[in-house]
Each structure stands twice: as C-alpha cells, then as structure tokens.
Amino acid sequence: DTEVTQTPKHLVMGMTNKKSLKCEQHMGHRAMYWYKQKAKKPPELMFVYSYEKLSINESVPSRFSPECPNSSLLNLHLHALQPEDSALYLCASSQDTGFEKLFFGSGTQLSVL
Amino acid sequence: GENVEQHPSTLSVQEGDSAVIKCTYSDSASNYFPWYKQELGKRPQLIIDIRSNVGEKKDQRIAVTLNKTAKHFSLHITETQPEDSAVYFCAANFNKFYFGSGTKLNVKP
After folding, report:
1. Cβ B100–A42 below 8 Å, yes or no?
2. What is the pLDDT of residue A56?
3. Which 62-101 residues of chain A touch chain B by CB within 8 A?
4. pLDDT score of B95
5. How far does the CA of residue A7 sit from the closest CA of chain B (Å)?
6. Rounded to 5 degrees, what are φ and ψ at A37?
C-alpha cells in the first residue's frame, strides 16, 4: 500500500460546527503532516508529527487541533472555523522526519459557511 | 527561513516541445530539492527529486539539474504531451519544506 488516504473528500460546515478530518497511511512512515492549500497557491505547512509527537506547529490558530492516535493515523479537529479557513487540506507522510519524499493524500476540500 | 522563487508562473508550449521551469533558493544549507506535479483538483505528486551532492537526475522525459554555486535548480520536460498540463511546484528543504509559488504548464495539442 503506497497511498495516503484522507476522509472525507468534501466537507461543508458552519462556523459553529465541530468536525474532524482523517488521514491514514500504511507505509510505515514515521512523519505525518497537515498542509493547507488555497486555490492557485502552494501548500502551506500547518503541523508536523514525528514519531507520533507534535514537532512543528506553524502558529496555527487553536480552532485547528491536530491529533496523532498512532503511527498510521492523523486527525485534524476543527471547531469554530471562519469562512477564510475554506481551503484544500492535505495530509502527507514521509519515511523519516527530514522533509524528504513527502507523499500527499488527495485532500479534503473544506467549505466554511 | 528559506526563500524559494519559481519562474515562470505560466508556461504554454506546443505538444512535442520542451518545457523548462526554474527555481532559486536562498539558504545554502538546503540539501534536497523535489518537484511536484498537481493536476486540477488532485493531490501534489512527487515526480522527481535531487539531492545536493548530485548535479543532474533523469527519469524518462523528465530531468532536474542543480547548480549549488548559483543556488538554482530546474525541471526539464522533453517531448511534452497534453497530459503534462498541470501546476508544477519546486521545493527546497532546510528544516522544513519551502515550496515555490508554482508554474501552470499548458501543453497545446
């Protein structure tokens, strides 16, 4: 299995909702990432987990809360989002933590109303 | 932090022609340079990468060259095909990934 799987593919939520994005990989990778991508822009790093521990938080607002339950799973909990948070949320993984050979999931297209 | 500049922002070529996309980086400690292809509505896919101890790498119609002295690296696509149409991102790593701003490549049949 050489895939990073993300669910759901699309999500529409109101500003008062709580939702979660899920990401799974079975490649034995030890680093997992959350990126945010706006249309026509490059991906922006949000969080990095290394060996199931949060190693980088790019000053992301607390309405985004990451969680790594085990080495294969990564979640992003969303609460009280703003319309400007609407974007494609990409999960990625890599063998090690040196930011090399990142494999991306297909993303969750999030719309906040 | 690292700064990666990518040019051009858009590139239109005729099918069968070559395409070249260039990136420059600022931090000489960067040691890994990948290229990602992203089709509309899809995930970024790693198409080729190069490490700082190598000057050139080829994979069929795709090649990447790296000039460490000048701190720039380039993606070369030969014999372009319509399915090469996509947005291409370069990146450099120094503690973390820094992406270029992207190049939208359009290959006209």
Report:
1. yes
2. 92
3. 90, 98-101
4. 77
5. 13
6. -130, 120
Radius of gyration over every alpha carbon of chain B, rounded to an integer in angstroms: 13
Q: Is the dihedral of CA A81, A85, A88, A91 positive or negative?
A: negative
d(CA B92, CA B25): 7
Q: Would the CB atoms of B34 and A102 count as touching at under 8 Å?
A: yes
Considering only CB atoms, which chain A residues are within 8 Å of B93?
98-100
- Chain A residue numbers touching B87 (CB-CB < 8 A): 40
- The C-alpha angle A98, A41, A79, rounded to 5 degrees, equals 80
Q: Write out chain B's pLDDT in tens, 109 residues.
A: 678 999 999 999 999 999 999 999 998 889 999 999 999 989 999 999 999 888 999 999 999 999 999 999 999 999 999 999 999 999 998 778 889 999 999 999 9
